[in-house]
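Hi L.,

You mentioned the student needs an example of a multi-chain input paired with its predicted structure. This one should do, with 316 residues in total across all chains.
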Amino acid sequence: MQRPVSFYDTTNLYPDSSIGYLVRVCNQLGMAQLDRVFADEGLTAVQWSALISIHFGRGPTCAALARDLAHDKGAMTRMIDTLEQKGLVRRLRDDDDRRVIQLSLTPAGEAAAMRCRERVIACWNEWLTGWSHDEITTFIAQLQRLRTTLESAAPCAA
Amino acid sequence: MQRPVSFYDTTNLYPDSSIGYLVRVCNQLGMAQLDRVFADEGLTAVQWSALISIHFGRGPTCAALARDLAHDKGAMTRMIDTLEQKGLVRRLRDDDDRRVIQLSLTPAGEAAAMRCRERVIACWNEWLTGWSHDEITTFIAQLQRLRTTLESAAPCAA
DNA sequence: CGATATTGACTGCCGATGCAATCATTGCCA
DNA sequence: TGGCAATGATTGCATCGGCAGTCAATATCG
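Structure written out for the whole complex:
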């Protein structure tokens, strides 16, 4: 069995060809754009993604939410604090496992999350103008594949 | 001429299919991994990317560097401060345009950037195990395309 | 030529983030 | 059962990042 060929070497890893660099820049630019879009809702892009994650049942608890968004656990506690103060998120102690605090959206939180969602949809459709359906689904699949790898990756040996 | 079909609507924008969510999570996970890799060099992943950007002539000045990395200009000044104190970066006032301060790497900065680069190459080759050459180049091209769009995008109307 | 706009570097300020430690609760296993 | 590891939530601490404003130098245009 042959060892797979390595893609990167010292001759071809430069910013424009670096997945890490490109992913970071795309993230920075996209988040900055969305922060401005959400400004009049009093939300940041990260806060909105937390609301959405709760909405879709990916973040039933604070720890799960932090894992889902690859966000710091401590910082997540404080983010939930502010979202709770805004009246968008509810905390409810779990009776079965008393370590856990269940998170859920208030009606106001649901409404805000859905309002923002429509604007995010509009933004992305604008940004993806000219992309074919196949290009987009391929791109999403590749991002998912990368996420899965990074999630399960042991600390890199290098 | 027909208006292109929109990809996203309220039935298919959820975290696992959202480019924004996936890009963010990949960035968070990748940067966290690289932060640990660079820890013994006393560098963070963001600092390293600044060094590389200077190395490749993409960040000849503080402002250009901030644009290249989609990083805050003020924060960049302070990052250069610390990299200068570490003896990795040099500042040199430009004589032609006296607003500008030219950035360059010291020999120590070059060496550190290249050492880290090799480790980054190793990490990415590990993370991309199983990807075909074509899949990787396609992925990179799509990320570049997205970056270009986001860079030139006016504030989203939505 | 002169006023205004633009650009680059820098700074103060505030909020957010990551890390480490703590405490409570639960799971696991000898 | 009893002790120990694991998990969840929280907090303190240091740092970082984004925003807005300032100052200096340059470009633009009437």
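You could point out the following to them. The mean pLDDT of chain B is 94. Residues 44, 46, 71-75, 78-79, 97-100 of chain B lie near DNA strand D (CB under 10 Å from a C1').

Best wishes,
N.
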